[in-house]
Specification:
This protein is of the alpha/beta class and 281 residues long. It contains nine helices and 13 strands. The model has no long low-confidence stretch (mean pLDDT 93). It folds into two domains: 184 residues, HAD superfamily/HAD-like (Rossmann fold), CATH 3.40.50; 86 residues, Putative mannosyl-3-phosphoglycerate phosphatase, domain 2 (Threonyl-tRNA Synthetase, Chain A, domain 2, 2-Layer Sandwich). The longest helix is centred in the C-terminal third of the chain and has 17 residues. Strands 5-6-4-3-2-1-11-12-13 form a nine-stranded mixed β-sheet, with helices on both faces.
């Protein structure tokens, strides 16, 4: 890779960087190498900004975050990427842009259909913090952060597939999409992880116009496929029973192990291939 090219890593969280217990312990070697080399680590997830800020703090990354499946873009002041934001508003130490439909609008339409047609589903808006913790395996504090949503609603579908398809068609009339994630179906607007990835790359390109950014995206689920397809290097993180997605990208890798261990292996492989073996020392 030439001196003017740099890697930009964009990653899904659950089932990718994080394992079933929400740990990234097995990715420590790759995370350390990214930090040592100054490679930005962009978190791109269905999680809320509140959840992701806590995680970013513990990971020590100040890169932008794409929250709620692309419905929200947050740029920390520490990133130095935004001097005069136009469409962003200030929230604490972050510049925030809501790119999707509001959660209130999504809930009003979805719940009206549930009442009218008797659809069997429930989600975060229906549950107490204790119930969110039970359904997700999160601690009470983390579950509370997961409820702080702006542009999406995770649900558990308990009805038939045929009725789900009818529900989905009805929502589409209002611009609402139904997307399958790792554990839940996500009700959301037209924004997605791919759009968030493109927006983040544009921020880096604007801040450092002399650099050719090579985007590396990692994900495991259907809601990651579009994100992987806007990357230069797409990494499929398999599940225990094999890969669940087949993205089209200039270069596609499939990790040999699920979740965090596979993430670690893939990042170290890409660093070696793109930057040379000396970058791993």
């Amino acid at each position: 890779m030439s001196a003017k090219k740099k890697l930009l890593v964009v990653t899904d969280l659950d089932g990718s960087l994080l394992d079933d217990s929400y740990s990234w312990e097995e990715a420590r070697p790759a995370l350390h190498r990214l930090k040592t080399l100054g490679i930005p680590l962009v978190l791109n997830s269905s999680k809320t900004l509140s959840e992701m800020k806590d995680l970013a703090h513990r990971l020590g990354t100040f890169a932008p975050m794409v929250a709620e499946n692309g419905g929200l873009l947050a740029v920390p002041q520490e990133s130095g990427l935004l001097d005069q934001p136009q469409t962003f508003h200030r929230s604490g130490n972050d510049w925030i842009e809501v790119t999707g439909l509001s959660r209130d609008f999504i809930l009003s339409r979805a719940h009206a259909l549930r009442e009218a047609e008797g659809y069997l589903f429930d989600g975060f808006a229906d549950w107490s913090t204790a119930m969110v913790a039970e359904h997700t395996g999160l601690s009470s504090a983390a579950a509370s952060r997961a409820q702080s949503r702006h542009a999406t609603e995770p649900i558990l579908w308990k009805d038939t597939l045929a009725r789900r398809e009818t529900f989905e068609r009805s929502l589409a009339k209002d611009g609402i999409r139904l997307l399958k994630g790792g554990r839940f179906l996500h009700l959301m607007g037209p924004a997605d992880k791919a759009g968030g990835t493109v927006a983040v790359k544009a921020l880096y390109q604007q801040a450092m116009p002399g650099v050719e950014w090579v985007v590396v995206a990692l994900g495991d689920s259907q809601n990651d496929q579009a994100m992987l397809e806007v990357a230069d290097i797409a990494v499929v993180i398999p599940h225990a029973d094999g890969p669940h997605i087949s993205p089209q990208a200039p270069r596609v890798l499939t990790a040999s192990m699920p979740a965090t261990a596979g993430w670690n292996e893939a990042i170290l492989t890409i660093i070696r291939d793109e930057l040379g073996a000396s970058a791993l020392q």
